[in-house]
Structure prediction request, 805 residues.
Amino acid sequence: MDRRTTIKWVLAASAAWPLLGRGAGRADPALTVQGYGTDPNLLAVYRPGELWPLTLTAPQRQLAGILADIVIPADEHSPSASAVGVVEFIDEWVSAPYPANLRDRPIVLGGFIWLEAEAARRFGRGFADLGAAERSDICDDICDESRAVTARRDAARFFALYRDLTAAGFYSTPVGRKDLGYIGNVPLARFDGPPPALLKKLNLA
Amino acid sequence: MPFVTAKSQRDAYDVIVVGSGAAGGQSAYTLCMDGAKVLMLEAGRRYSPETETPMFQTPDLAPLGGVGTPQKPFGFYDATVDGGWDVPGEPYVRASEEAAGRFEWWRARMLGGRTNHWGRISLRNGPYDFKPHGRDGLGFDWPIGYEDIAPYYDKVELLIGVYGSNEGLENTPDSSPGCLLPPPKPLVSDLLIAQRAKRLGIPAIPGHRAVLTQPLDFRRSPARLHPGNVTAQKILAEDMRKRAACLWATPCGRGCSIRANYQSTTVHLPPALASGNLDIATDAMVYEITLGRDGRANGVSFVDRTTGRQQHATARVVIVAASACESVRILLNSKSAQFPNGLANSSGRLGRYLMDTVGSSVSGQIPLLESLPPLNEDAADGQQLYVPWWLYREQRAGKLPFARGYHIEFGGGKRMPGYGTAAGIEWLTGGSYGVKFKQDVRRYYGSFVYFDGRGEMIPNDHSYCEIDPSVKDKWGIPVLRFHWRWSEHELRQAAHMQRTFADIIAAMDGRTHGAVQNDGAKAIAPGGSIIHEVGGAIMGSDPKTSVTNQWCQTWDVPNLFVTDGAVFASNADKNPTLTIMALAWRAADHILERLRRKEL
Prediction:
């Protein structure tokens, strides 16, 4: 990627948030659906894309998966975010017609543009083509909003949101519940409270 | 044919009950079990908890992980139909959009109303709570005292099933023997909160919630509730046997298909229907009480929502139990030559003295609760313990800058993971991602606690509702306009809550999340947002200054009753639902007596 292209990307990225932020979604015909209404069937199983069309493009979905797995990679306890449907969850989220989703959509899409631009600026390649160390080089600068420099504050806000969405998608699944050791949501004949040994250990017996 | 269409009503009913929630359900139950013929009109649709409740559904099966949206504000699985802060086609007006004057109104359009999703917290008002003016000169005294309503608290607890304990604390009444079910075991976080709060002189005791921690006593309770009425006893015993005990899972706010908690649709309506004395018309939006030439109510007019047609039903007695504000709206919209300012409004007090509960919250993170082993902490879905108001003596001595008390609802534990589990935890993690983030989430999961203050609001002249002069809903019915203002008592109380919760979190060696507000105006939740709105048709002992007498009977129209929260003359810190039911039972007993004597 030549220098002129890089500069164009950076300019596009810096303009992305205000541009996308103005009336975000309303101009997009895909987002004119009315949601699930005030009396949806609560017993049905809903999959992303059933209630409103998913709107991320193939390159956006690729980047969404890479970034979700940077936030939640596979480890010895559980698989990565993209392996349990987090990309679909995020696509559903940014494609939904509700105020919170309309608010988040330009932040996520703007963040994607910024990431590509930043990858091009730092390494002359697209984010997908970076190695792990190069990706961390960028993410380390935006992973904590309170420490991010002013120029990267919007990018840090994007990263915080993206981490929240990735975690929401991941920990809502059976895999995520198991990762946290959640053992509820099963009928019990009786509830005995915490084990006495634990209470003793915590000086609560 | 218990569920009737508007076309197939019976010719004559003893009583029309408008509304099917806590007040309507209790009113109809009491009347039907003693033989009165009742027509219940519900604005919302028919709703069946047995077949519609998403008991074990997990967030990954719902759109957007089940989080709240404007169409389902308390989450996708919340048992609210066609409701929330906005009901489509049924607007209301705020006189002010300023934060300090903001009032929010939660409604539901479904059989059973808001009882399907409520928190099930069932606290009794105490003796002080009926005579607040007598104690500090503020607000109004009720025309009844605790001793008048205590037998009805016993009855309601026996009927619906409430867990709790008798602690003998000031203005925190004990129940009669055998009324309460055993409280659930506390969680680790509950016990830690109780231990550390105690060091600050703050007592934590078992909560009171309408959840069956064991099966109801179907052998003895029916005879206690309906002495001398064998038919009622038999119906109730059969129904109590069909209610299962809690299975220690699934959030109560979704409703309960096994009927292990109270909702009108699972507790009040089934035996009332089994009596053969109850007809229910759903999709019946009542807009007016009609008046006969004799000055008595002769029926109600309503819109059949399925056809849009206006209908009329008649009865000897009319009970309005549509929720405080909706009942006031119906009465204000019932204008006639005799009552140009709304029915039963000769005092001019209809719509006045609207109250909500003072609400303020602080949450924190507790290192002692980090990295605990896996525990099933679904328990009773909250309020295993709570803190009743504990500073009566200090308040009497003038040591507090506000006049009334609050209680504390708190919680923690390893709840079902979802959107909130790992959101916004950079303040703890320093912005970790990757494998470190997964480790952090495991470490902090279950280590958060929250504290919600629930305090008494004193009625004032600036908090009221009236009919908006121009706005109408989609049925053409004029809508309410709300005016709201807190007094210094509420604002200072909210600030006190913030400091107290921060102190408890500090005593737990924890960290508060976010700023602790010293400014009460910033600490207090908007009016109406706690969804404890009461008042608007307050009861009293003087027809010039109140709308009903102690029997919930309007002073102006002898066969017109208001049995919901509208009649509250004060709004103690105790959640209002149990008191609504106790008052409704008492009023229905009175109506039955008067019907028998042919006085109504």
Q: What stands out?
A: The longest strand of chain B covers residues 309-320. The longest helix of chain B spans residues 488-507. The CA atoms of residues 198 and 204 of chain B lie 7 Å apart.
